[in-house]
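Subject: Sanity check before I submit

Could someone independently write out the structure tokens for this chain? I want to compare against mine line by line before I put it in a report. The sequence has 279 residues.
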Amino acid sequence: KWMTQNDTTHWSEGLLPVVYGINTRMSSTIKTSPYQVMFGQAPRLESDFWKLVAQDEILDEEDLPTPVALGGDVDDDVVISKERDTTWDDVIDPDVTKLVQKLTDEALSNSLIDIISPTRNCTSSIGINNSFVDNLISFDSPPENTALSSTQPSSSSLPSTSSRHDLIRQTATNNYLTGASKRMKLHHNYVDKLTDKFNINDCVEVQIHTAGRTNTDPKLLPCIVIEKNKKGDSTVFKLARQYGVLQNSFSVDHFVELKSSCPQVLKELNIGELNDISF
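---
Independent answer below. Compare away.
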């Protein structure tokens, strides 16, 4: 499909966008994308924007075009230049701006303290680094109610990124199991209804395995039901032929209905005179 849309025979060039599209597409089963399950966050690739950059062969950062227009939110008197004028304030995530501002304020306040107290030990830099790591990790993590602590953060108290992954993966697991449970329930209901259709003395056919026949032999073996037994949550059947009683028990999903064309020899069987045979 990608080769048809792009009118090309170079299939290798489409591997990257096709695989990326598959991995970032929402799955109807797990209600999320494989990318989010793997990395714990939504993809952050502006594919359309960078595609335009590649097409224009832009190598210098100063030559980057203006990002995608903001639709009706842009005033009429604002002129957007595609070639040179780049306004990044409209596309930067507000959370990122707040994070950068917070880190800048912390660095500035600590710098002023260092000027006043030149003999301050290096523990303050450790606190800054830990606070920086905390902010980076918590940026993509789900919000949590954390109590403020006056103690100095340590490396052992750093939050783990597993919480973000666990949340998305648990959601995907629950959605997958919910869908699987529904399909299993529908299958069990179908099997129960199908089981009620077959009774003793009904003619059925069972498939002959390819290892037990040649290409010219029949693929199905006509039999007659002689027993119907409950085994746990399932029902199994004992079958017989004119040559003997099959030792194996069969479930209903192995059957092909043969009521309309049951051979006369099966209808006239005397079960008491038959011996067990293997199948």
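---
OP: Matches mine. For the report I'm noting this point. The chain has eight helices and six strands.
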